[in-house]
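Sequence of EIF3_N domain-containing protein (Haemonchus contortus).
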Amino acid sequence: MSIDIDGFDVADAPAVGTPAENGIVASDFLRTVLTLDLSKLLATEIVEFLPKFDDQQKSSEKLVVNLMESIYLTKFFQNETTAAIEQRRQATALKQKKSLTIVMYTLHIIHIVSQCAILNGIKPINHSEVT
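Predicted 3D structure, token representation.
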């Protein structure tokens, strides 16, 4: 991801080579970053930041820090969320497999017991006749 801070409004980013009146409002951009899928982001560059031209409040420096935090905290959260979802999916699949094994084992035992009962002359229960 490449971010040229020349494009931000001069009120948010005065320390740039070409300040932009009516540029992108930093808070709007930062909110937008939170909506992006950054899970596959490999690198970020922030260009045109000239610290020696920053104002007393260090507005441009704060913007650069906020950009990096927003991008990488969002990326970290998305990756952690994706990993947590995958872990839950795997745990659920394992529980389902174990449950299916128990059901199949139980049915197998019922079948064996039924066969033993029949071999010993015990009639199976007809559930439609039970009151």
